[in-house]
From TrEMBL:
GO biological process: negative regulation of DNA-templated transcription
Pfam families linked to this entry: GntR (PF00392)
InterPro entries, A to Z: Bact_HTH_transcr_reg, Tscrpt_reg_HTH_GntR, WH-like_DNA-bd_sf, WH_DNA-bd_sf
Protein name according to UniProt: Winged helix-turn-helix transcriptional regulator
Keyword flag DNA-binding: yes
Superkingdom in the source lineage: Bacteria
Listed Gene3D superfamilies: Winged helix-like DNA-binding domain superfamily/Winged helix DNA-binding domain (1.10.10.10)
Boundaries of every HTH gntR-type domain copy: 7-75
Keywords noted in UniProt: DNA-binding, Transcription, Transcription regulation
Amino acid sequence: MEVQPDAYVWMQVVEEIRSRIAAAQYRRRQPIPAERRLAEELGVAVGTVRKAVAHLRDAGELYTLPQKGTFVSPPEGE
């Protein structure tokens, strides 16, 4: 991911995760990569990924199961 200087990096990570969901790289009810792995992939700090994931979780786009991981939420009504 190429970091844009005029936007918060964590918001760029949010958009990257959303684009991967839209492209079906991350599928509904399937786990996304661990925060450390995602941080390495994107070339950002783990805290940046953690903030992006928390934002997406608060928005209902992801959910986390303790000891299991973070998953893409199913569509509304399912």
